[in-house]
Design a protein that fits this description.
Layout lengths: L12 H10 L9 H13 L4 E7 L3 E8 L5 E3 L5 H4 L7 E3 L12 H4 L6 E8 L5 E9 L7 H31 L10 H18 L4 E8 L1 H8 L1 H16 L7 E6 L2 E6 L4 H15 L3 E2 L5 E2 L2 E8 L7 H22 L1
Antiparallel strand pairs: 1-2, 1-6, 2-3, 4-5, 5-6, 7-9, 7-12, 8-9, 10-11
InterPro entries: GAF, GAF-like_dom_sf, GGDEF_dom, Nucleotide_cyclase, Rev_trsase/Diguanyl_cyclase
Protein name: Sensor domain-containing diguanylate cyclase
Amino acid sequence: MITEQRCPIPENETARLAAVHSHHILDTEPEIEFDALTRVVAHAFDVPIAVIAMMDTDRLWFKSKVGLDVPQLDRKVAFCAHAIVAPKSALVIPDLQDDIRFADNPLVTNAPHLRFYAGVPLVDTTGHALGTIAIIDVQPRVLNHAEQASLLDCATLVMTALQGRLRASVLEQMAMTDYLTALPNRAQFDNALSGAMSRAMRSGVPFSVLCLDLNGFKNVNDRFGHAAGDEVLCEVARRLSGQLRQGDTLARLGGDEFAIVTQEGDHGAVAVLAQRLVASVGQPIMLSSGDTIHVGISVGIAPYRAGITSTLFLLDQADKALYDTKHQNAKLV
């Protein structure tokens, strides 16, 4: 039995886990650069097993591996759990059988009967150990200083790839996000609409498109300035988001125009949703200046129907419904 004492937990574990999850790498598909580096490491050190691994809450997950046929290990039996406790150095165990921490580890006492381990923590720019790059053998061996330095260099290469991957992810997210409200932008909305259309055509999963436009927003900018207008847009985005279900997509298309893809396809239910949206936005908005303002919102609805194959057609239908709603509201004023 592996005791809790034999599975050390870093003092900064909460922050470390947050750092791991911020990279969005757990349970991702294989990637060429990581697989190639793992193969090079296994060949360079002449070991049967090499891994690039991330330490999650209760498991060691392998981003890349050579010589193993499992996607993850229980953290309690993972040698890497010990390596991440000292993020500035390599953990080298010449013979696992001779180390009291690992002698009764099932990976040592049973197949694959491991005997040697050397792991270097993968440390991000905040100083948190995300996981390790490790080499493992079924025979005892030593790792001299030059070889340890080479393994440390390999860890640097892995982190360079991870940081590049993270930067690319951030840039992609920025390209899909409205700078002001942090809502999805038009590009991300189009992707969500295309996905909903594909599911509907394939499996008949219902959905609806809503186009929304603020009433009286120009008066806000004219009277209180554009900074106040930005405050209103952010508050409206917050209120609209609060009325939606998980899986719905709310986007800001530009200016004071918003749009929603909702998984609700029933006309009555969508009408009720529209009423909630109108009521929520219609509540007074308190600006940081202390001024209280009122804006309204108009909603146009276009439910998906069998036979519709164009997202542009459906969005155009919602936009026409919005125009009709605004025209009707203008008559009532």
